[in-house]
Amino acid sequence: MSTAKFQFILSMFIVGSVGLFVRLLPFASSQIAMARGAIGCLFVLGFSLLFKKQLSLKRIKADFIILLCSGTALGINWILLFQSYHYTTISNATICYYFAPVIVVLLSPVLLKEKLSIAKVICVLAAITGIVLIAGVGGKGANDFLGVLYGLGAAIFYASMMLLNKFLHEVTGIERTIIQLGAATVSLLPYVALTTTINISTITSKSILLLFLVGIVHTGCVYLLYFSSMKNLKGQTIALLSYIDPVVAILLSSMLLHESMSMWQIIGGVLILGSAVISETMQLRDI
Question: pLDDT class for 175, splitting at 50, 70, 90?
């Protein structure tokens, strides 16, 4: 196995465990998202300075508006995903989140002027069927359904970020990461200030350690591993290996949290993840 492939797989394993850590944190989803962005941004910025990775203001300025919008979408996406973890199982939340590539395929004809083939339409319909199975047939009540809606909301903003990133032309991976994480933090600050309060009793050494783990390991380290490896991997390989994340999330939630999925939910999950894999593969072939 090449170093690049190992780094990418490692980053997917780390991301797959983020739901477990979020579940343990006693803070509001928006507070976790903002702290994650701030800590991750500072960590990557520190890394770039330590290892003399030159940042270009000229490149950043050329893509700044898109970076700002995609960073804001990233922050909102995190809030909705973390909310989904609290209302439904990590498995359901993660699978709904991976509806994002299907949304990209659905919007590509309008935003990217790409052709929507019959095969892509079938993928979209299969993924929608999967969502219905997870939310309707396999649901466990109002909270579970609300969790699925939060997961789909996260998928919409994740898809928005994916589409916006297609218009980035100048910035490097590290520059993109720093600005997007910084934009996510700044955009969430007013919302956090207006809608949440800090409960002093929840600020313990354990909660602070977990928060820094989410910011440094699940955000900063993951982004560094992701961007350092993807330049040496084929697009199709990246698309397929990305689905290690939901598989790890489902396995960990089953083994450590004893979360279960009904047969209908499993079928729905297979339909969504399968459609997403096929959709991304077809997108890459069209490039």
Answer: very high
In the prediction, which pLDDT does 2 show?
82
pLDDT at 34: 96
User: What's the number of CA atoms in the CB half-sphere (13 Å) around residue 61?
Assistant: 3
Q: Name the nearest CA neighbour of 35 among 175, 162, 213.
A: 213
Contacts within 8 Å (CB) and 24+ apart, 107-114: 107/159, 107/163, 108/163, 108/283, 111/163, 112/163, 112/166, 114/283, 114/286
The answer to whether 167 touches 62, Cβ cutoff 8 Å, is no
Nearest CA to 239 among 200, 286, 201? Answer: 286
Cα separation of 19 and 21, whole Å? 5
Give the CA count within 13 Å in the CB-facing half-sphere of 272. 31
The 10s digit of each residue's pLDDT in 39-96 is 999 999 999 999 888 888 999 999 999 999 999 999 999 999 999 999 999 999 999 9
- Measuring CA to CA, which residue among 268, 228, 242 is closest to residue 104? 242
* Listed range (126-135, 160-169, 217-226) with the worst mean pLDDT: 126-135
Q: Are residues 116 and 141 in contact, defined by beta-carbon separation less than 8 angstroms?
A: no
The one-letter amino acid code at 95 reads I
The structure tokens 């209908």 sit at 264
Alpha helix stretches (DSSP H) within 196-243: 205-215, 222-230, 235-241
Q: CA torsion sign, 12 to 253 to 185 to 104?
A: positive
